[in-house]
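STRUCTURE:
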């Protein structure tokens, strides 16, 4: 009887451990400074339904699963650098970020027609341009993970049309 109870306890603990974290996206990335130096960063999301805990970056909160999370990207007044609070404690020139199955890249590039800040932002290999100085990455969640990612404040037409 004791062996049966022990076996049952081990089996239940294995099942509950497997279901403990409903999703976990580490969010590996790399920021690029105007000097050309690159530095790795991690900014991801995790959800533990049993515990009602949601992790944003390095911090975990007791809360319900949010519908979405917004990451602000601010273009400096001189349009030479950007600020992404979640990725770095200062201005950067660009970044690469892998979150789940999604990839985002922000880089400077010169074009024949001028674009805002000479920046191009790519989401899953689709290119967009700044339509204003403040844009945001919207990450939408379901109980199973990331439902989708969208970028607000951008345009596909190189930002040159009014």
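SEQUENCE:
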């Amino acid at each position: 009887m004791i062996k049966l109870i022990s076996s049952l306890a081990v089996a239940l603990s294995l099942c509950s451990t497997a279901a403990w974290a409903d999703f976990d996206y580490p969010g590996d990335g790399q920021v690029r400074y105007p000097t050309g130096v690159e530095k790795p960063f991690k900014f991801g999301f995790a959800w533990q339904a049993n515990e009602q805990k949601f992790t944003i970056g390095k911090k975990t909160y007791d809360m319900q699963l949010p519908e979405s999370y917004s990451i602000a990207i601010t273009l400096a007044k001189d349009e030479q650098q950007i600020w992404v609070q979640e990725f770095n404690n200062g201005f950067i020139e660009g970044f690469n970020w892998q979150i789940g199955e999604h990839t985002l890249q922000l880089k400077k590039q010169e074009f024949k027609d001028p674009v805002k800040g000479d920046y191009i932002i790519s989401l899953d290999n689709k290119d967009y341009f700044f339509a204003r100085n403040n844009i945001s990455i919207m990450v939408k969640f379901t109980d199973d993970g990331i439902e989708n990612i969208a970028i607000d404040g951008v345009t596909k037409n190189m930002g040159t049309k009014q």
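REMARK: The longest helix spans residues 2-20.
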